[in-house]
Amino acid sequence: MEPITSRTQQETQALPDFVLRQFDRQSAEYDHLQLYRILQTGIRHGRLPAGLKLPPTRVLAQALGIARNTVVHVYEQLALEGYVEAGVGRGTYVTDLARRPVKAAKAAVADRDEPLSRRGQALIEHAGAARLQWGAFTPGVPEVRMFPVRIWNSLQSRVWRHAAPAQLSYATGAGDADLRQAVAEYVQGTRGVACTAEQVVITSGTQQSLLLVAQLLADPGDTAWLEEPGYWGARSVFRAMGLKLLPIGLDGEGLAPTPQQRRSAPRLMFVSPAHQYPVGALMSQRRRRQLLDYAAAHGSWVVEDDYDSEFRYGSRPLPALQGLDEHHRVIYLGTFSKTLFPSLRVAYAVLPPDLAEGFARSLNELFREGNSMQQAVLARFLAEGHYATHIRRMRAVYSARHDALIHAIRRQFGTQLQVLGGAAGLHVVLELPRRVNDADVARDAQRAGVTTRPLSMYYMKKPAAASGLLLGYGTVREEEIEPSFDTMATALRRHL
Ligand SMILES: Cc1ncc(COP(=O)(O)O)c(C=O)c1O
Known about the structure:
Aspartate Aminotransferase, domain 2; aminotransferase; Arc Repressor Mutant, subunit A; four-stranded antiparallel β-sheet; 3 domains; binds pyridoxal-5'-phosphate; 13% strand; Aspartate Aminotransferase, domain 1
């Protein structure tokens, strides 16, 4: 086969940009899979035209901040499948697919035979979970180093000493009975949630709670309203369940559907009223009432994600939306991921009385739940007051860190940049001018060793996305906040 002559120098340089724009260093996808996907789709869809010379592996690796071997491996794979052609000393060129050799034709058949379903592909394509889950300023992760391990161990020993065989078998209910009771008392007392223990279902995380909600309360094709910007985790689960996602903008009072959007009621509405994720606003009392009235009038379900309301530094949180609901339209979701530690994987859903039994049965049917021993330990941790003590202690720690971060931001930028998020939760949002590409800033910061997540990734409608950085302070000690932020500021200044 004739070697295809190189296009212009300009085109060759455009390729790293093409890849850079799409390559997400924080994506959950492995580097080699991500790079392969970007190049392969670019070639298949003609965005990387036949004859285009790929940059040398060293150059691309450097531009992306990944290992050269990764790029070598991806080029080899693409060559094997016929997407590119390589010749010793000649470089690597995009194949003319119309004149593909046989091996490429085979690959074309394989393309049509994509192993993942369309739903699966969409899930991976829109994946939001970061691979880095520790280090300054990873958002959404608490200070796990201060978890009271000794207390936990001693409770664990006690629970194991009295372990019943049933606790080591498959679980058959909606979670450990003592834990359901303890959670019911906790959410009544601290969040004004109106419930009994029978309405509490223990899950292995908010993600699982959301999966149950989507599976049991909606059918594929039903519409879900999601806050824009909003929690990518809810988006991913709802998308995977085949729901139609409708991003709904926010105003000063919270979720703000336009009159036109209100005309067609959704099946589900996902909201975070206590501390909007990620921008941190509190939903007004008036908006809460409007939302509940609308849900009652149209038979919609309100999914209330109350993920970090324990941490408010100053004002007290408004009680949960669920407590205002007279029509049983709210599914209230809480988690121990932020108050204790995420890998515990214990969360809870408080359901309207009529739904609890169905949720519990489905949980068993789909997942054959277990983890009963851990839940029993957690029940004691709550009942004996350790949970309340830990939260009180952590509130003071996070409050000091929050202040230290604000101080570090002000020291670097004065009032040039706004901080959103209220004095609550485990992160703030540093607002950037719209012209700044926040994903580029995050990438540069990561190279310098500091983690942040771009605000734009929390939007479904990217062109309308605001620019900003989520800065978490759960994973960074108070004394490390200023030096870490200085590193962040250096990366950021290059883009301002
Ligand atoms: C908005 C929001 N809700 C809920 C959660 C908790 O999810 P899980 O309980 O699955 O850990 C998170 C964690 O990142 C979150 O950011």
